[in-house]
Specification:
By secondary structure, this protein is mainly alpha-helical. It has helices spanning 13-29, 31-34, 37-56, 60-82. Helix 1 (13-29) packs antiparallel against helix 3, helix 1 packs parallel to helix 4 and helix 3 packs antiparallel against helix 4 (60-82). The N and C termini lie far apart (45 Å). Keywords: Membrane, Transmembrane, Transmembrane helix.
Length: 83
């Protein structure tokens, strides 16, 4: 069972990380047009919120997907610049 109350702001960590991870993945596709700053920003925020949500044990599936897509949003531009 979840450790926080249903009214806690921590219940939003999963959905927020999912939305930011998806936004990071979309901005990676358009990195040539938008630049890499947006994907780095959205990806790092998605990873942060996902880790906070996983630590609170709330919305674990959404946090996992947000962590995966957010990390791709961070790693792709970093590997692109290093190559």
């Amino acid at each position: 069972m979840a450790t926080g109350s249903a009214d806690s702001p921590a219940t939003l960590y999963g959905p927020v990380s999912l939305v930011l991870g998806t936004a990071a993945s979309v901005t990676v596709v358009f990195a040539g047009l938008l630049g890499i700053a947006f994907s780095l920003l959205f990806g790092s925020l998605a990873v942060t919120f996902a880790l906070l949500g996983l630590r609170q044990k709330l919305n674990r599936v959404q946090c996992g997907i947000g962590l995966a897509t957010g990390s791709l949003g961070v790693l792709h531009p970093v590997l692109l610049v290093s190559a």
